[in-house]
Structure formats: C-alpha cells, structure tokens
Amino acid sequence: MISKKLGDLLNDQVNFEYYSAYIYFSMAAQFKHDGLNGFSNWMNVQTQEELCHGTAMLNHLVQRGFKPEMKAIPQPPVSWKSPLSIFENALEHEEMVTKRIHGIAAAAESEKDFALLNFIQWFISEQVEEEANDNEIIGQLRLIGEAKGGLFMMDKELGARKFALPVIPGGGLAQAGA
Ligand code: FEO
What we know:
Blueprint: H1 4-33, H2 37-63, H3 83-110, H4 114-144, H5 148-158, H6 173-176
Helix pairs in contact: 1-2, 1-3, 2-5, 3-4
MU-OXO-diiron binds next to helix 1, helix 2 and helix 3.
C-alpha cells in the first residue's frame, strides 16, 4: 500500500504527464500547420510516449491500492514563433518534469517506500534522455539558423522517428495495451 501523500504526489504526476502529451500534441499541430510534417511526426511520437508515462504511473498506483483520480488538464500553449522556440519550450518543460520526478524520488526515499523508489528510477533515466534529445535538436536548429535547406533535411530526419511501447518495469503497459 502506498501512503496517501505519495499516492497524491504520483497522481499529480499522472496528470502532468497527460498535460505534457497535450503540449506536444499542440506543438505537433503547429508543425503540421506550418508544413513541417517530419517535426510534427516527432512531436506526435512524443505525445504517445507521454501517455505511456502517465498510464504506467496510474498502473503503479492501482497496484499499490491507490485509486487514481483524473484531474483537469490545462490548456497548453498554442503558438510559437519558430521551430527553435518550440524545442526551447519543450526543453524548459522537460526540465520541470525532471524536477518533479526527482521530488517524487526524494519523497519516496524519505518515507522508505522502496517500491516507488524502484519504480521511479526508470523515469529518472528517461528524463536524462528526454532533455538530451531536445538539446540535440536545439543545437541543430541553432546551427542551421535561417537556412531552409537545413530545415528541410531535419524535417526528413525527424519524420523517421517511430513510436515503440516503452518498457517501463512495473508499468504494466503491455498488459494494459497502452
Ligand atoms: Fe514523461 Fe517527457 O516526461
């Protein structure tokens, strides 16, 4: 059984992961509107990953005897001035997610909830990857600057990203069919 305090904390993070999905959906929509279908694909894959993150957390709560509550999801930003500003915003958001995940780990540690601590480890590593991915794309976008050819090439590259169900230990995703 997870404590009420830790359950509420992870429940809030379920909501935040679904909010993250909604932000990336909004970013995908702007890319699509701007004719950058590869960038849009990359963001759509990101959206699906975030839904998996939230669902894995929800499954952990249920396994631990906590009833998850779906909460309101705020409206995401809807407009950015450039692909670079979209990815800068994505990085800023992921840095916030990282802080929250670290906060959950610290709370689990202080309550000696080793099951939650073990579960959240995957997310700690995932956040390193999430920030690195955004940083790499930001670096490339800064390099190409205003060069349309470079943007076109990046669009092709990001269009190749494919969704794969993340293997999150204890996340129950295969069973849940998420
Ligand atoms: Fe699930 Fe991108 O944090």
